[in-house]
Specification:
Elements lengths: L3 E2 L14 H11 L3 E7 L9 H5 L7 E2 L2 E10 L12 H5 L2 E5 L10 H13 L5 E2 L11 H11 L2 E5 L11 H14 L3 E4 L12 H9 L12 H10 L12
Parallel strand pairs: 1-2, 2-4, 4-5, 5-6, 6-7, 7-8
Antiparallel strand pairs: 3-4
């Protein structure tokens, strides 16, 4: 149903198990036309060095009809909204996802978590907030949805949050989808794959989308062109090699 996956990890994040080649092969088998590799930002203990992100320029943009985006799942570091994607990394990366991870930013109270998340959006570099429904990090859901719509940042529905990660997320994820719908913002779907076999798996996201009657016109994964247009609207230069998608 959705030919774009915007969140996955390779062996460069050392608790994941697949390579770029594995994801390309899986995409070809599943009809995925565009995907983003988003390994953890360098402040995480298991993350690659910042050179990993800068050197993604050596990746091909297209392999056998599949488009590849260079991404990161950065860490929101503090209440000022700083992230661990800075300097030359910013020019090397197409897609910046950012979210809370306990080794970098320990869970705080709702007010503090909300302030940090909105500050990260306001700084202007983040395109997608990852797994905002994590119950370990309570946030003011209407406030983050309004801020996301204002700053043109997508909030993620993360399929793995319904299975083996961040258990107890479902009620929050549904509330986030409803709030984004009402605020007129964007949803991004991510499999958050740590092994290629789960790439493109959005069954739980699809269930939430249907339950809240979320408009397809504001889901970034519907076509490759929609997401590429979103990146360009956010100030990223067009990627010539992906113009045909």
């Amino acid at each position: 149903m959705f030919p774009v996956d915007l969140h996955m990890h390779t062996v460069a994040s050392t608790h994941a198990y697949s390579t770029l080649h594995d994801y390309i092969n899986e995409a070809q088998q599943k009809g995925i036309k565009l995907f983003a590799i988003t390994d953890h930002g360098p402040d995480m203990a298991d993350a690659p060095h910042h050179w990993h992100f800068i050197n993604m320029r050596v990746w091909p943009r297209m392999v056998d009809g599949v488009g590849i985006l260079r991404g990161i799942e950065a860490n929101i570091k503090n209440i000022d909204g700083d992230i661990d994607c800075t300097g030359p990394m910013l020019a090397a990366i197409d897609v910046i996802i950012a979210g809370f991870h306990e080794p970098v930013f320990a869970p705080q109270d709702k007010e503090t978590n909300t302030k940090a998340m909105i500050a990260a959006m306001a700084k202007g570099d983040v395109h997608i907030i990852s797994h905002p429904g994590n119950p370990k990090y309570p946030v003011d859901i209407p406030a983050i949805a309004e801020a996301a719509a204002h700053y043109q940042v997508a909030l993620e529905l993360n399929n793995s949050s319904f299975t083996h990660s961040r258990k107890g997320s479902e009620a929050n994820c549904r509330a986030i989808a409803e709030a984004v719908r009402d605020a007129g913002g964007w949803l991004a779907l991510g499999s958050d794959s740590h092994i290629a076999f789960s790439m493109g798996g959005f069954e739980h996201c699809e269930r939430i989308i249907a339950a809240v009657n979320f408009p397809e016109a504001r889901i970034l994964n519907v076509t490759p062109r929609r997401f590429l247009d979103f990146l360009e609207m956010r100030g990223r230069p067009p990627i010539a090699e992906l113009a045909g998608l």
